[in-house]
Specification:
- About 70% of the residues lie in helices and about 0% in strands.
- With about 200 residues, it is mainly alpha-helical.
- The protein has two domains: about 70 residues, no CATH class; about 120 residues, Tetratricopeptide repeat domain (Serine Threonine Protein Phosphatase 5, Tetratricopeptide repeat, Alpha Horseshoe).
- The longest helix has 20 residues.
- About 40% of the residues are buried.
- About 5% of the residues have low confidence.
Length: about 200
Amino acid sequence: MLCDAGRLTQAARLSKEVGELFENDDSSEENVQLAIDSYQQAAELYEMEQQKSQASQCLVKVAELSSAALNPPNFLRSAELYEKLGKDCLESNLLKYNAKGYFLQSVICHLANQDSIGASQAMNRFSSLDYTLRDSREGKFAESLIQCVEGFDAEGFATACFEYDRISKLDPWKTTMLLSVRKAIDGGGGGDLADDDIDLT
């Protein structure tokens, strides 16, 4: 009704609130999907009203839930969303420094999807968009992760996570994703590390 009346900002705000209700209600598969759909709708409505900051906040929720709450997770969708968010940041002088964080998250999603080639290709794309990325903490961390996954180097992976965490604390989303990536390394490389052998936090 609000959309029909041309009140898109109010409709977007309601869609976002609905997403929050579904997200916080319980973690059932149905509620997670409904939360994702509501946040996606809110983002689209905010974009129509040129409210990019609000739209970005909603897309971050879509990416987080799609990768960390859905079962099975949709890592590819999340990787694409983080890539879009990073590119959008580069268009603004105020937000361009946030792009590196989103690009790192996109690379992590590709790795969680067990696609180190996709992660490497994404890193090359991002580096061509942001020439400061490879020399940044986020860029170096992303490249270390890719190299460790390609070499099934669980010890090197843990060291890279530890070194990054010393300066920039790993948030719960990164920790969850990196644990998923590390388990894939252990399985693919024949490692015998238990879950508590490496503390990513």
